[in-house]
Amino acid sequence: MKPGNDGQRISRWLTGRPWRSPPVPLSQRRGLPWLIGLVSSLGTLVLWYQLSRQEQFRSQQLALSELSSLQGTIAAEFREQEQGLKSMGKRWSVAGNAQETQRKIDAVAYIEDYSSVSQIGWVTPRQQLHWLAHSRPGTTFDGPALPSSLLVPIDCQTTSPQVSFERVSTPTGNQILMGLPICIGDRSDGWLVAVFNAETLFEAIIGEHVKIHKNLHPCEYAVFDGNDLIFRREAPEAPLRVVSTAAVNAQSNFFLAGKIWRLQMLLGADSPENNPRPCRGLC
Known about the structure:
- The protein is an alpha+beta fold.
- Helix content is 40%, strand content 26%.
- The protein has helices at residues 4-15, 26-95, 100-113, 198-213; strands spanning 117-123, 129-134, 164-170, 173-184, 187-197, 219-225, 228-233, 248-256, 259-267.
- Strand 4 (173-184) and strand 5 (187-197) form a beta hairpin.
């Protein structure tokens, strides 16, 4: 307070005149609303940013949880089909040199149980391939050329038969081959081979999973073998209730059937082709 103010106050008190503070300069009066608006805008911006980050984090956590659940569904389906192939192989081993007619009956029954199987074949010890059953009876067998790993007989005296998986790219799409060595005693009887169309297989698994869990997000799913995209399920039309409108990507590698697979889940309009960094925000 300036020294002269006390005297001015006493003088005004003695004369009865009220004390008035000095007038605010016009420049300050004009700048005050602008300052209040600026502070209010900054506060709104900070609040919006915090809410956006919280929504992004919530969506990512939901995506990762969904991803983990879907991995479990895929693994369970593979194990079930693998067990079915082992059961058929065991019957072949116990029956010994069974007639091809009986093996065809087994193959047809397996295809009826697993709709994603397109063909069942038997590779003889002389590496001759005999197709036994087709998912569409009467259709010409057009199975892929088998890799050498599913042609060479194993040594049944030293090696225990184990299911192996291979992926083959064909003009009609990616095919997943499931092979099981057949041993009759200590003698190899070739291989039992099941051919799965990757598109049909993963569409059946993922489509059923999404239907059961009633996912609220318009999701796009992609499955990779290494860096190769082998399946993509585009997002359906957005439902009436959407938890998050932000694009969220989540991915995870998992070991299954002797191979490393990568499952990717995308919320929003992104796709594997136009997204060079699929794990945005997670890596």
